[in-house]
Design a protein that fits this description.
Layout: H1 3-17, H2 19-26, E1 30-35, E2 38-42, H3 46-67, E3 73-77, H4 128-138, E4 148-151, H5 158-172, E5 178-182, H6 183-195, H7 199-207, E6 211-215, H8 224-239, E7 243-248, H9 260-266, E8 270-273, H10 279-296, H11 306-313, H12 318-335, H13 341-347, H14 349-354, H15 361-371, H16 376-380, H17 386-402, H18 407-413, H19 419-435, H20 437-451
Parallel strand pairs: 2-3, 4-7, 4-8, 5-6, 6-7
Antiparallel strand pairs: 1-2
């Protein structure tokens, strides 16, 4: 690419990203060289390089490929006179290992993390079905369920399994055209094709894939034109017996503003839930990570009970759990101390506080109804007699104290009551707990049970 071509490309990017973003992030870039399918750009700092790679790398690659179709990825580096040349910091586009057959240079791909393989995915009861389904798809055999839909909360392993499938397929069948991208990238490519009047290219590109993998599909909810094109792409691939693998943060039927016809299509295959981790699975994940860290920090002692403590306390997000262990080993190596329970509590005080168990309104209602020996339906029902009204007020009080829910939302969970009713109940219990020892004891016992 010549400097004149780079200047023209920058003008196109100016129109695409806007003047403010262009001035801050694109203008500082300088074309360095191109070789072996990589276009390298000089950046003033590694921070700028990393940000541009993550935020604008896909757009830059798209424009570069329009001039040089043989370019497969872009790379940003600080010049050697400012810092030593780093090893490709998170390239803007890193496809699954390139297939032997030629691939359309417009073909979208997203970075694949080599750490996310089946070999280092810890299997337990909460994720064993999802793991088994992913392995079956990754075997590359006949399409048995289409699509495979994986869903679950943050940090439960959806992305890990998606990457593992892509790696496995690319290794088993190098000629297979596997495309992995986020729903946001799909939308960007679609909008770009509309703007450039290249919809036929877009359609033919996506309909030519052998395996389409789309992460976080809930992102297209509410975006009518993107949903329309996604629906037609989906149908074309299914009709052609091409494998589709989708992930989302919730089940298809629970994604708001997603067209019913798309929900129906997503539910026609195998829908698998990655459940929240249990204690045994979290402990297994920690133990597998410790094996790696012992090679990185030789001689660093780990006291008994530390991993069990972390598995018990950090329950909601595996990424937070792994990050806590990383921080713990790094801190202990810097201060030169054994990793004890006391050191763990000091080093991870903020993580442990934020990971404290969150109580739900449903748990409070169930526990209160059991404590006062009344039916749950009576607790949240319309009856106003004292035997139900007082426990109901206690439950409302605990919901206000132990959850972050608003008064109107608490009211809705208690039979659709008005927020003023909730406010009155909370105030009444707040007054009684000072003068009525029985109420105070009930509240304390219920709180301890819920926090256990």
């Amino acid at each position: 690419m010549t400097q004149d071509q780079w200047c023209k490309l920058k003008q196109d990017l100016l129109k695409s990203v806007g003047k403010s973003n262009f001035t801050s992030w694109i203008e500082p870039l300088e074309l360095s060289h191109t070789e072996e399918g990589v276009a390298t750009f000089s950046v003033p700092t590694s921070f700028v390089g990393n940000y541009v790679s993550q935020k604008y790398g896909d757009q830059i690659l798209y424009h570069v490929q329009a001039l040089m179709p043989d370019i497969r990825r872009v790379h940003f580096q600080v010049p050697t006179n400012q810092a030593s040349r780093p090893a490709a910091p998170r390239s803007a586009v890193a496809a699954a290992p390139a297939p032997a057959a030629p691939r359309d240079p417009m073909m979208p791909t997203a970075p694949l993390d080599k750490r996310f393989s089946f070999d280092n995915f810890v299997v337990g009861k909460p994720n064993e079905l999802a793991h088994a389904a992913a392995k079956r798809v990754a075997s590359g055999g006949p399409v048995m369920f289409n699509p495979l839909f994986l869903y679950g909360g943050v940090g439960l392993g959806k992305t890990h399994l998606m990457h593992a499938i892509a790696w496995e397929l690319s290794q088993r069948q190098p000629d297979l055209n596997v495309v992995y991208l986020s729903a946001e990238q799909f939308m960007y490519r679609f909008v770009q094709a509309l703007r450039d009047r290249k919809m036929m290219d877009f359609k033919s590109m996506f309909r030519a894939v052998d395996v389409l993998m789309v992460d976080d599909v809930q992102f297209i909810a509410g975006k009518e034109s993107t949903q329309e094109e996604f629906f037609h792409t989906f149908n074309a691939l299914v009709d052609g017996r091409r494998q589709i693998i989708i992930s989302a943060d919730r089940a298809p039927g629970e994604i708001e503003n997603l067209e019913e016809r798309i929900k129906s299509r997503l539910q026609c295959g195998l829908v698998v839930d990655l459940h929240p981790t249990n204690y045994e699975l979290r402990l297994g994940i920690l133990q597998s990570k410790v094996e790696y860290y012992r090679t990185q920090y030789p001689g660093l002692a780990l006291a008994d009970g530390v991993l069990e403590f972390l598995a018990l306390r950090i329950t909601k997000n595996v990424r937070v759990l792994e990050g806590a262990l990383t921080r713990l080993f790094a801190f202990a190596s810097l201060v030169g101390h054994e990793i004890t329970l006391e050191l763990t509590q000091d080093c991870l005080a903020d993580v442990l506080r934020s990971s404290e168990r969150q109580v739900t309104i449903e748990e409070i209602q169930r526990q209160v109804s059991e404590h006062f020996n009344i039916r749950l339906s009576d607790l949240i029902g319309p009856k106003r007699v004292r035997i139900y009204a007082r426990p109901r007020q206690v439950a409302m009080y605990l919901a206000k104290q132990m959850t972050s829910r608003s008064l109107p939302e608490i009211g809705r969970r208690f039979g659709g009551r008005d927020h003023t009713t909730v406010m009155h109940g909370v105030r009444r219990i707040d007054e009684l707990r000072v003068t009525d020892t029985q109420i105070a004891e009930d509240l304390e016992l219920l709180r301890r049970t819920l926090e256990a």
